[in-house]
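ok new one. same drill as before - structure tokens go in, u give me an amino acid for every spot. 117 of them this time. try not to just spam alanines like last time pls lmao
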């Protein structure tokens, strides 16, 4: 992991995330559960992830996670085109989340992202 990749991002349907907040833990989406790890993106990857996997979807949240709080369960592994993507092997404690923001659709149908760090 790069020393500058402190924050990673999960794009999540609001209903799924609100249930996780209530439980104190996020166990993953259906895709995460099928793959055996929770998929994340870096700041540089999040916009492409939204376009590829969440095109046209409303009611999404952008969950910012402090990767320093995840320990060795977080691994950066090759995915699209060989790029290294963050994967969490295990549940995500809501306490590791530093920010949750809406990810609305713009008039052009693309998601409107807040500034990412």
């Amino acid at each position: 992991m790069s020393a500058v990749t402190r924050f990673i991002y999960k794009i999540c349907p609001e209903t799924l995330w609100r249930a996780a907040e209530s439980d104190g833990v996020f166990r993953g989406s259906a895709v995460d559960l099928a793959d055996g790890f929770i998929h994340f993106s870096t700041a540089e990857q999040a916009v492409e992830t939204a376009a590829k996997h969440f095109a046209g979807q409303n009611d999404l949240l952008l969950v910012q996670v402090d990767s320093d709080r995840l320990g060795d369960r977080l691994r950066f592994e090759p995915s699209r085109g060989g790029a290294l993507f963050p994967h969490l092997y295990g549940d995500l404690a809501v306490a590791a989340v530093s920010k949750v923001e809406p990810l609305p659709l713009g008039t052009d149908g693309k998601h409107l992202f807040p500034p990412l760090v």
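The mean pLDDT is 94. and btw The longest strand covers residues 7-13.
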